[in-house]
Amino acid sequence: MIGKLTGRLDYRAEDHVLIDVRGVGYIVYCSSRTMMALPGVGEAVSLYTSMLVREDLLQLFGFTSLVEKEWHHLLTSVQGVGAKASLAILGTLGPDAVGRAIALGDWASVKAAKGVGPKIAQRIVLDLKDKAPGVMAMGGTITEALEGPDLEVVETVEAAPRPKSKKASKPNTSAIAQASALSALSNLGYSPSDAASAVAEAAGAEQGADEATLIRAALKLLAPKT
């Protein structure tokens, strides 16, 4: 299984790219949001990947973060949600907003993705709500992972030496703050689902808030109503 690709971006299409890794070209399908985040043709690129293997089909899907990859895995585990629908959801909302929508039970936001109807959106929220806290606790971009130890025990295909990209991704501080706040609330004894819902609502109300701000806001939401 190919878990990550690092090489040179040779070609861009509407929904996929061609990555040259030591002379071998890999076609990788991405969400619209990920496509916009990728560097230009000829530049260095790194993507986490997920492989779809069927009797008549072999496809690679690319992600700039482990959070996005995990949401793709979970979304496609829901009955009726294929890779195309998953990428549409991730492209419309982004991985952080997907987590907030599912944690809050906001199926209307999920339905905003092209090709996703109300029944599928409701099924996604119902099936994945309990799994949202675990994904929200993840964080980090492909750039951060490359600068530290490997995070996955899978076959990795890399070009060596790895060239520097001109468009290095910035650390996802919002995701890190949400993960830290979620951990703090769990340590205080709140259930994962309640903590995730409160953090998601707080993050949605205060964009870019730091960990302390999110914790205070979440605690207010979790306080008993009098």
Keywords, please?
RuvA, 226 residues, Holliday junction branch migration complex subunit RuvA, DNA polymerase, domain 1, globular, Helicase, Ruva Protein, domain 3, 11 helices, 3 domains, 5-stranded mixed beta barrel, OB fold (Dihydrolipoamide Acetyltransferase, E2P), 20% strand, alpha/beta, four-way junction DNA binding
CATH architecture label name of the largest domain: Beta Barrel
Neighbour order of strands in the largest sheet: 1-2-3-5-4
Shape: globular
Q: In CATH terms, what is the fold-level topology of the largest domain? A: OB fold (Dihydrolipoamide Acetyltransferase, E2P)
Structural class: alpha/beta
- Return the domain count: 3
Low-confidence stretches: 140-171
- How much strand? 15-25%
Total beta strands: 6
